[in-house]
Amino acid sequence: MRVLFVGGWYDVFVGGAAEGFQLARQAGLDAELLLGPWSHNLWQRQLNGVDCGPSAEFSFQQEVIDFLSRNEPGPRLRYFTMGDCRWHEASQWPPADATPATLAVTVDESSQALHFPTHPVPAAGGHSC
Fold this sequence. Notes:
By secondary structure, the protein is of the alpha/beta class. The chain has helices spanning 14-26, 60-69; strands at 2-8, 30-36, 46-47, 50-51, 76-81, 86-90. It has one domain. The chain contains two helices and six strands; from the N terminus they run E-H-E-E-E-H-E-E. Strands 1-2-5-6 form a four-stranded mixed β-sheet, covered by helices on one side. A two-stranded antiparallel ribbon has the order 3-4.
């Protein structure tokens, strides 16, 4: 069985796409993973004023046709890096040359976090559905 997982860096479900790819591979399935600069169901090069350039242009329909037309076995993994706006290929996720990094949010005494349930802060990726 062949499986295509598609996720976007601004997609609330991106973790599930990556995890699904890993689990499918562990189960011996021919899985492919595509991670791009998108939100959920918004496959476009520009999102919330951030333009990732022509290299981010994407046709979901064409990607599915290409996936269904491929005869060579996987794994196939393509991911878009936001800093250099480029596509990369790898055979596993995370890529073998990835460097783990610990990120932390620090807050000083002058910082405040206010929560107004009737006026939530919009997500950078927009609505998920």
